[in-house]
C-alpha cells in the first residue's frame, strides 16, 4: 500500500511535524512580506519578452526563405509558447500575481495560449491535484487517468499499452490537459447536466479559437507561404507539448515522489500537509535559463509547498526549505533532468506488466513505498 501515515513514514513525532509546519509558515511569511515592485517588474518583463519573441519568431518564419530561417523561427516560437504556458500561464493561474491587483495579470482573467480552458484547469490542477497531491484515487493527475504509476492501482490488461499511451500523451499534452479539465468539471457538477454541457461547450469554443488561430487564420495571413507557417505552428505546438510533459512528469513520477492513501486526509494538520507535498514531489537541477524555460517547475517541491508564491522566488525558497528538510531528516528528492525522466520512464514501462512479473512489493519498491517498509 501507499503511505497511510506521513508522520510514521518520516519517523517524526507529532511535535516535530508541527514544528516543521511552523518553520515553513515562517518562510512563507518572509517572502509574502517582501513582495513588491521588483516582483511585479519581473512578471511584466517576462510577458513583454514572451510577446516580443512570439512576434519576432512569426516574422522570421513568414518572411525568410531559407530552411535555416524557418528552423530558427520555429524554435523561437516553440520557446515563446513554452514560456507563455509555463512561466506565465501556469503561474498566473495559480494566483501567484493576484496580489498586484492587475486585472490583466490575474488568475481569474488570464486565458493561456493552448486548447485547455484556464478556469477548468484551475479546478482540476489547483484544487484536485495540489490539495490532494499524489493521493491514490483522489488526485486525478496521478497517471492522468491513462497510466499506472503505482502498484497500489490494480493491474489491468489495458496497462500493457501504457508505453504507447505515454508517447501519445507527450505529443498531445495540451489536449490531455484540456480533457482532464473538463472531466474534472463533470465530476464537480455531480449530475448537473446543464453545467456539464456548459463546460463542454466552453471547451469546444476554446478548441475552435485555438485551431482557427494556429491552423487557419495565421497561415492564411501569410499568403502563398501558408504551408510554411502552418508547419511551423504545428511543430512549435508539438515541441511545447513535449517539453511541458517532460517537466511535469519529472516533478511527479520519478523514484522518491511518494504516493498516499486517502487515510492521510483524516485530520491532516498543516505540518502534515507540508510533509506530504515534500514527500510527494521531486525537483530536477537547473540553471537560471533552464529554470525559466521550465516555469521554475524544476523547483517542484517549493512549488507544491507554496503554489501561490511567485515563481521567481522559488530559487530563494529552495535553500531554506531544504535546510528544514535536512533538520528533520525528511527526503528532499532531486537529480538531473535526464535521470529524473529515465526513472519516470522505467516506472511507466515496468508497471505496464502484471504484478507477478515485478520483484519488489507495494510497500518497498523504487517507485512505491509505505511506512511499512521499515517495520
Question: What's the short version?
Answer:
The protein is mainly α.
Task: Report what the structure shows.
By secondary structure, the chain is mostly helical. It has one domain. 60% of the residues lie in helices and 0% in strands. It has helices spanning 6-9, 14-34, 37-63, 67-93, 118-129, 162-171, 173-189, 193-221, 226-252, 270-279, 288-293, 300-305, 314-327, 337-350. The longest helix has 29 residues, at 193-221. InterPro entries: FA_desaturase_dom, Fatty_acid_desaturase. Pfam families: FA_desaturase.
Q: What are the SSEs and their pairings?
A:
Layout: H1 6-9, H2 14-34, H3 37-63, H4 67-93, H5 118-129, H6 162-171, H7 173-189, H8 193-221, H9 226-252, H10 270-279, H11 288-293, H12 300-305, H13 314-327, H14 337-350
